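Quick start: read one record
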Amino acid sequence: MNKNELVKKWGSGLLAGTLIIGSLAPIAQPYRVSAAESTIQQVAAAGQGSVSDTMFEDLDGDSVQDSGEQGVAGIKVELHNDQGALVATATTGTDGKYTFANLADGTYYLHVDLSTLPTDQKLYTTQGINGADGNSSYFTISGGNAVTGYHFGFYPQQGAIQSFVYIDTNNNNQKDNNESGVSNVHIALYNESGTKVADATSAGDGGYSFTGVKPGKYYAKADIPANYKYQSSTYFGSDGTTGYFTVANEQTVRNELNLGLSTLNNSAVSGVVNNAATGAGISGVNVELHDVQGTLIQTVQTGGDGSYNFSGLEKGNYYTKVVIPTGYNYASGNGYGSDGNSNYIALTGDNTAGNYSINLQKQANATIAGVLNTPSGLGIDGQNVSLYTVDGTLLKTVATDSNGDFRFGSLPEGDYYVKAPIPDGYVFDSSNGFGNDGNSYYVHVESNSYVDSLRLTLAQKVGQIRSTVFNDLNKNGTQEATENGIAGATATLYSASGAVVDTTTTDANGLYKFENIAPNNYYVKVTPPTGYNVLANTAFGSDGVSGYIQVQSQQSITNLNASLVLQATPAEVSSAQWIYNKDGLNRVVNNNDTITIANNYYDSYNNPNVNVQFFNKDGGVVNTTGYTATFSNPGLVTPIYTNSQLLAFVHSEKTGSTLVTVRDANGNVVRTFTIVVTAADVKATDIALGATSIKTTVNATGKVNATVQPTTATNKTLAYTSNDTSIITVDANGNWVAKKAGTTTITVKTTDGSNITKTIDVTVTDPNAITDVRWNFNKDGVSRPVNTNGILEIPNTYMNQYNTPHVDLQFYNSAGTLVQPKGYTVSFSDPTIASADFTNPDLIALVHNEKTGSTNVTVRDAQGNVIRSFTFTVTAGAVSATDLTLGASSITANVGDTGKISATVSPTNATNKTLSYTPADPSIITVDANGNWTAKKAGTTTVAVKTTDGSNITKTVNVTVTDPNAIASVKWNFNKDGVSRPVNTNGILEIPNTYLNQYNKPHVDLQFYNSAGALVQPKGYTVSFSDPTIAAADFTDPNLIALVHNEKAGSTNVTIRDAQGNVIRSFTFTVTAETKTIADRVKSADVELVNLRPNTGSTGTNAYIYPHSADVPAGVTYTIETYNTQTGLLFSNITVGTTDGTYHQVLHNTANPTAAWQQTGNTIKVYATYQGVKYLVLQGPSTDYYSSQTTHVWKD
C-alpha cells in the first residue's frame, strides 16, 4: 500500500491479522482497547457458520412457506454481534431469501429494518424475530453450524373491485333490478403508470371483478361491444375509460365502476311494395335505406310477397327509398310519397318501424287521338276535349291545338270514351267515332295501342255585315235623311290578327256588305274616294278604321256606317290662335273674343306685339298675304303685315280697348275680336314665411303661413307644391295633411310671373312607424334583429321556446314600444318554404315545414308600406357529433413541456367540431381552448375532452407530469470518512462542534438528487433556521448548500425550500460539545502490524498507524518500542511518522525492518509524542498483535 493511499476510519483500537466474513466487505468492527488497563483482545479468525431464512407471503398463516407462497424482496436484514456491533447487512432477493455465511463462532442477533417492509403487505406471522422492533433473539454460531428459523410471514394488503356492465334502460346511471347485464365485455385494469395489471370479462349477469388488487391509484378501460354504446357511468367516460380512482387496503370497490350501455343496432324497418291493380306484392324491387343526410346505408330487394326488411339498425333518424321499377308509376302509399321516398323514421336502437307500404301501378303507353274540324278541313282550336273511363270517371282534359288535334297519352290498358264540345256557332256535320252529341263510342286500348282515328266535323253558323258610307254634311257623324251615300268607297274586312278576310266597294247608295262571315272578332277599314276625308264617329276613327266587331252566328250587323266629309280649301280660315306668349301657351281666338294685355306686355321675342295666327280646317297655317285689319280705336294698336304667317298688333303702352276686324285678300271677314290694354301689374318682390319648417306626426293637419310682398302686389296668389305627396299633401290654399313618416319639402311660389320661390322643410314622424324588427322567443333567449336585405337563417329542425316551428317577428317603434302588426301582410317568393301566422296579435310567425330552401319575405303594413324585405333560409338540421377520436389517450411529460391534444370529431361533416378541454387539476397541466397544453408541475391528473354541440361525448386523457429537477433525495456528503448520509424530513443531523469536512471546513455539505439520481443544483433555494445563531447557509458552491456551524452547541430547525417555495427538507440540526483530552485524542489512532509479504513487496515487518484528524492534531509523532519480556531491555525503536492533520493519513515505516522481533517473548509499546509530552497508546505481548504470513488489509 502506498503512503498516500487513504484508508477508512474505524475508531480507536488495533487490528491484527485479516478478518473476512463471506463476501461482505469490510465488516470487522475493531474492539476498543484501553491502554491504561493494559488489556489486549484479539479479533477472532473467520469461521464457517451461517444464518439464513426466507421472508415470504404466509397466505395460510401457518408460519411455514408452502407451495405457491411467494418470497418478499427488498427487506433489509442486519447481523449484529452480542455487543451490538454491526457485522453485516443483507437484503432479501426476489425469492425472499437472506444469508450470512462464513461466520466465526460467537453469539449474534438479527435486526430487520422495519422501514424496508413492503407497503403493500401486512406483517402476518413472525418466527424468531420481534415484529415490534425487528430484533431477533440471540443465537450462537459454534463449529460452523447453520442457523435458520428467523423470518416474517406477510399477507398481501389487497383490495377488490366488483361491478356490473348492464343495459341502463332508463338512463338513471344506476343498475335497477329489471335491467339486464351485458356479458363478454372485456375490462382491463391499469396502474397509475399505465401498466396493465389485470383483465376481467363480464359474466352472464354483467358482473365482473378484480381481486388481489394492491392499494393504489388505478384506471380501467372497457371494450364497449360493437352493438352497444355508452349510456351512463360514474367513472367511465364515453370512450370506455375511467379517470383515476383509488383502491385502499382490504377495500372492495363495489358497484362504483358500473358501466351502463344501450343497444346500438337492434332496431329494424320493414314494409311492402304492392301492385295497385291486384294487391299482390312485387318482388325484386330495390329498396334503399338512407340517413337524414341522404347517405346510402343499405340496399335490399323485396321478396316474393313484396316485403322488405332492414335490421340491426342503431338509434337515429332514417328514411327509405323505393326505386320504382321501369314500367311502373306511384299509385298510393302509407308513409311514402310519389317520389318513392318515405317520411323520416325515428329509431331508438331497439324498436321496429313497420306498416310502411307503397302501391305501384303499371305505366300505360297507349294513346287515343283525334281531330275537331270544319267541313273544309279547317281545325277548330282551343276546344276542351275530355277522356273518361267507361264508368264515367273523368281522367284528363286537353285543348285542341291550332290544327284542331287532341291527344291523350300514357294510358293504361282499358276502355274509354271521349267527350268533345260543340261550341256556339257550330252544328254537327259528320264524324268518325263520335255521335252528334260530341260523345265518342267506347274505345279499347292495349298497353301500347295508338288510336288516332277519332274525328268530329262541325259546320259553322255564319253572320253578315251590311252598312253605309255617306256624306256627312252637318259633320255630326250620323246619317240624316238629306245625306246621301257615297259610291266608290272601299271597305276591307280584317280578322282580329290583321289578316284580310274580304274587300268590297260601296254601290251607288253607298252600301257595302260582307256575307257568310264565320263567328269571330273582326274590324273594318273604309278608304274614302278622292276629295273626301273620313270624319270620326261612333263606328270609325278619322283613319277610317273601326273598333273590333264580334260577329256571332246568324247575326247581321248594320251599325257600321262611315261618315265622310269633303276636303277643306287650304286658304279658308277655320280657327285663330294668339301665339308667342312668354308663358309658352297658345290661346284660341274665336269670333267676338277679347284679348286682354297689360300695357307692359311683351311677347316671347320681347316685342310689344299681340301675334295672331290663322288655320284652315286641316290645321294648316293660312297665308295672311293681302290680309287687312281695321280698328274701332286706331291709336291703341298698330298692325304689322310683313310676316305672311301671322298678323302682329303692336301696342304703345296706352290703355284702352279696340274692336279688331280682320279680312282676307278677298275682303272676307275671317275674325272679329277686341284687344284690351290695361295698366301694368305690380309684381311680387318677396314671400314672407311664418315658419321655414314643419315638424309633425302622421295624420296631423295645418296651414302654411305665407304672405306676398309688397302688400300692393297685383297678384297675391301663391302656389304650394309638396315634393313628396306620399309624406305630406298641400292644397291651393296652403292647407296641409301629414300622410306618412319621412322628410320632404313644400315649395311656395308666386303666380304672377315673378317666380319667387321659398322652401319649407318638412319632417313627419309616425308614432307607430317601425324602426326595429326583432326575431324573438328563441330557445337560447336571444333577441335578434331582422334587417332589410338581411338573411334570416334557421335549420329545418328549428323550434321556438314553445316548441313550435315558428320564427316569431315582433315590431317596435322608435321609443322601443311594441307595435301590433294589425293589418300587416306577408308575401313569399316561394310560399312552399314558409307561411305567415297572424294568430298572436303581438307578432307575425313565419311557419316553416322542414323543407329546405330560401324565399324572399316582404312584410308590409296596413298602408302597403314595406316594413322589411329579407331572405328567409331554411337549411338542413345540424349534424351532431357521434364520436370523438383521440390521437393518444395519455400524456407523459416533464414540467415545462408543451404540446397539443390531437382530437377529431366524427363524422367529418359534423356541424360543430369545437371541443372543450378541461384538466382535472390545472396546477399540474393547463389546456387552452385549442387543446394546447403546458405541463406545470409534477403529478398525475386527467384532461376531459368534450364535444360542445350538445352531444356530450367525452373522452379522457390520462396525464403524468414529472419534474426532472424534483428532489427525490438529499445527502450529507464530503465527510472525512467518505460516507454519504441521507438527510430525511423530520430527521436529526448531529455533529460535534469540532466537525470539519474533507476540506477542513466547518461545513455540513448537503447535495440534492432527482429520481434518476442526477445531481440538481439548488438554484434559487432558500434556507431558514429557527435559531440562526447555531448555523448559517453558504451558497458559494453552486452544487450544494453548506450549513456552516460556529462551534456553538445547540439545536435548530432547518427548512430548505426550492425556488417556488416548496419545502424540500425540514429537519433538526444539532451541534454537540466535544471535550476530549489530548491524551484521548492521540490514543484514537489505529495500529496495524504485518509480518512478511507486505504490500510493498519487501519481506519483513511493517508498521501502520492511522490518525483521525478530528481527534489527532498535526505534529503528533508515533513510535514503536520493542522490549525483551524477560530482561525488559529495549532492542528496537521505530519512528512510524508524524501527523499532518489530514484525514486517513497513513503513517507507514519499512526503513528499519523489525526482523529481530520475535513472535514470542517480546513486549510492544506504542507511544505518541505531542508538544514534548509522550503518551502511551498501547502495550502488550507481541503475539497479540501480529502473526506469521499476514497481509495489510486496511484500505478503502
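The first helix runs from residue 1078 to 1082.
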